[in-house]
Amino acid sequence: MPEPVALVDADLQLRPWRSEDLPALLANANQAEVVRGLSSRFPHPYTAEDGRAFLAGEVVPLDRWALAICRDGQACGGISITCGSGERCGTASLGYWLGPAHWNQGLMGRVLALYVPWVMGDAGLHRLLAEVMVHNPASARVLLRHGFIEEGAARWAIRKDGVLYDLRRFAWLAGPSAAAPA
Asked: Phi then psi for 150, rounded to 5 degrees?
């Protein structure tokens, strides 16, 4: 197993999740504002049982690229990738979330600046996809400000709470072909 990573920028640290993160995970994840833009496997209310299952790796794999976003030593969100396989080898989907108390402070931009270049190299990726529900313009703005290119939308791609939503699609490309198409 590779050594655990820790990416650091002043008061910000990206590091593997730990069992002692449970109280901070619950405080930040159990917010209705967080879950509205995430997959239904991220429940609300977010209970201690949900948190323990997540920290045990029973919800998503807590592999090398699934990191806690920590501010001043406390977990306040998470970021990870899901790697493609077969003909999608070298690609991954990006997922992230942040507790509302940390929104609108430039934190996610700093997270992306640390995480994306590192994970692209570490995972050997040439393409990183991020999808954002149409009613989450703040997430779209942070992706655009940090090098992602908007590729379009997947119409009615998500059904959440009985409502169909569009997904905006963004990509980060590695190498000389990374420039936006003319």
From this structure: -75, 130
Strand partners, 127: 91, 173
**Two structure tokens written together for 23:** 């109280």
**In this structure, how many other beta carbons lie within 10 angstroms of the beta carbon of residue 28?**
23
pTM over the 0.85 mark: yes
Under DSSP, the state recorded for 88 is G
Query: pLDDT (tens digit, 9 = 90+) per residue, 26-60?
Result: 999 998 888 887 777 788 899 999 999 999 999 98
**DSSP-based three-state secondary structure for 100:** helix
Q: CATH number of the domain at 7-178, out of 3.40.630.30, 3.50.50.60, 3.10.620.30, 3.30.70.1130? A: 3.40.630.30
Q: Which of 81, 100, 98, 111 is nearest to 171 (CA)?
A: 81
